[in-house]
Amino acid sequence: MEKIFYFDLVITVVLFIFYFLAKKNIFFKKVLIIIYFLTMFSYLGWRIFYTLPLNGLINSIFGILLLIAEIGGFLLSIIFYILFFKKNKKEKPVLNKLSGHYPTIDVYIATYNEDEMILKRSIVAAKKLRYPEKDKVNVYVLDDGSRENVKILAARLGALYIKRENHEHAKAGNLNNALQYTDGELIVTLDADMVVRTDFLERTIGYFADLNIGFIQSPQTFFNNDPYQFNLFSGDNIGNDQDFFMRNIEEQKDRFNATMYIGSNAVFRRKALEDIGGFSTGVITEDMATGMLIQSKGWQTRYVNENLASGLAPETFGDLIKQRDRWARGNIQVARKWNPLRIKGLNAIQKVIYLDGIHYWISSIYKMIYLLAPIAFLLFGFYSLNASFQGILFFWFPSFLSSQLAFNIVSEGRLTVLLTNIYETAMAPYISYAVISEGVFKAKNKFVVTRKGLNFKKPYYNLKLAAPILVLLALSVISLVKILLISNSVLSFNQPMNTIYINLFWIIYNLFALILASFIPFERPRFRKAERFATNKNIQVFSIDGHRICTGLITNWNEIGANIIVDKDIKIDKNIVLDIENHKISAQISRLFPLNEKKINLGLEFKNLSNKEYAYIITQTYALDSNKHVDPVYESNIWKIIPAFIKGYR
Predict the structure, then answer these.
(1) What confidence tens digit (pLDDT) does each residue in 15-33 have?
(2) In this structure, are residues 129 and 107 in contact, taking their beta carbons and an 8 Å threshold?
């Protein structure tokens, strides 16, 4: 036993040395990945040949299920590290690559039931897109809700309006309908809440100088906090849970011409869409299928990893679940209708990458097995692992530590294994149900648009959605209490102590994620109708009759209002006019509170914005050039979540 402890100590030191070296040198990152593979092969060999419980049918079933989950997780990690083994160094063309021939462009903004305020800023931003030949850009509002107010809004903002009477095939059908009435060489697809930066076309159209490019995809980023960030008071500590996929995984898939179309923020060559008969229908994730089929026709695709358009992340845990439920079911539907392994035209690595994307959703079942296995042992005595403590230290510990360090170095701090564990734990009951119901029972769920632009004033706990997590949490706590009682000889437990120690660690690891996951359904109030953007613009303040009152500073703003700082001893009427970079904007003071002895904060509501003033605010907030806009991607610090949550909850 002493030798094993020394062995683990040496392994730990070596792994951490490679970890710190890998931060500065890509060679050591590759070494760390190779060490992970070697330790995992060793661990799984031990698991297969020496640890399966064969004493009883139920034990055997539990043991095989756990082993399948571990092998499945390892297969996912193999593809993951193949993607990240080398950096993507493909050329990033600029607009002048087109040599003066600028293609015609149709910008599609697909809408169904989104609030007019959300849709308005998306249309205005699209109309403000810069392009050398502006007359070649047409902005279309594709209204699948047949709403007269949207038709009027589009006309007022200078956009073209297309509605359809037949609402089959949801969003894909809406896009295909528009293809009949437009003729642009290139087509930009945008969701109704996605606001493009003014330089979107300048940063993307240059790729189409290569006549083999079928589509390009840019990331979906978000200007609001998702439910993980918001409900855990951790917007400053963790990134959006989609950031790593959008900014890292998609970038690396680009190496293999396997960039996934994600439904918005993309530009298509019309000819590529015509080659596959338009946007794919018959599944609720038409975007994934569309991109895959275009690649199968031999078209090249690229990923433009720049923050070129942002929208609204789901604002409640319930909406997040509905969105991920749709994605999970859609992937299973794609696998059934267009199995990547059977699609002609895809090369081997493309097939594997798309199959891996489908497999990812099945891994929610693996997570449920990991959560239930120690509970089944500690409460009911069902074995899923017949291992000695020495074996765990010798085989499992090196693979566990190397997996943590390899993942952290590859993710560049944007995501960690522990944070991923929280995300997967929170979603596991719902996604595993979606996968089983769709894969086994072929549930007939329809496409559901994610709600956007919610605001409510009272907090509430969504007990119905929290129930599966709370049940798992309660069972885990009971299991832990039982172990503690055993250690004090209050209860008898006819199991080897080594096995109990293994499950003790396991249950504590699960509890960490379950406790945090149980707080995510606690919905905090969302008071604002629109997100505020930080700024530091100097302003002049005038009375409504044109008299200059003072100067000030805007600290945050949106199209609804702003917060400004002015001198404390200034007398200001309730109604004022702001001069912001020669734009005159009428406002009304809604609140006033001191900042310090010399300055005060004024909360403002804008009044009667003209189209020009509104467009100016949109271009300075949501649609600011990508090279000027603060990129929302940052390092995640999981250890700050708990103190941030405690502080925020108080």
Answers:
(1) 999 899 998 888 999 999 9
(2) yes
